[in-house]
């Protein structure tokens, strides 16, 4: 089994990544966009940048270009996962047809507040506009997709985390409270000081 976290920006991408790590999955650190991916340590904060130029140089240093989206998917190991803010176009739908997909969603107003904090704290930005943000939610109509709201993780709804385990593994393999609590306590690349 392989998985892919498809998320609206600032909907808990790396919080969910830390949760999957605590459920025993292998994080590739790959954040996919089109035919390229950036590799981050999913359990460490991003470096701080004083200028946008520093941010651009860092992004270039962690970016790998591939022949195709499907080529990227072949680099994900069994029991592994990658992440991305993918709109549901046919390239992604077909490529991910055999993957377990976790769709992370968040209220747009909460997203906007979180983006402002992220920009102030990390000097980062998002390349996803409001239309793409809304389009990402349409993954819920595809097959083999588990929808997880940001608040399911941040205000832990442990029953939902138990259902996620059943979706991924066909059974509950670990204590969902312990796994979610560890994920919430762990650092991650884009974790805000205030979620």
Task: Characterise this structure.
With 195 residues, the chain is of the alpha/beta class. It has helices at 13-22, 52-61, 69-73, 90-95, 108-122, 130-136, 150-154, 158-169, 176-185; strands at 3-7, 26-33, 36-39, 63-65, 80-84, 100-105, 145-149. Strands 4-3-2-5-1-6-7 form a 7-stranded mixed β-sheet. β2 and β3 (36-39) form a beta hairpin. α1 crosses α9. The protein is globular. The relative contact order is 0.24.
Question: Descriptors for this entry?
Answer:
Rossmann fold; 9 helices; alpha/beta; 7-stranded mixed β-sheet; single chain; globular; 195 residues
Chart the SSEs and their pairings:
Layout: E1 3-7, H1 13-22, E2 26-33, E3 36-39, H2 52-61, E4 63-65, H3 69-73, E5 80-84, H4 90-95, E6 100-105, H5 108-122, H6 130-136, E7 145-149, H7 150-154, H8 158-169, H9 176-185
Parallel strand pairs: 1-5, 1-6, 2-5, 6-7
Antiparallel strand pairs: 2-3, 3-4
Annotation field: number of helices: 9
CATH class reads Alpha Beta
Mean pLDDT: 87
Q: Portion of residues in helices?
A: 40-55%
What CATH architecture would you give? 3-Layer(aba) Sandwich
Write the CATH homologous superfamily.
P-loop containing nucleotide triphosphate hydrolases
The number of domains = 1
Measured on Cα atoms, how large is the radius of gyration? Answer: 16 Å
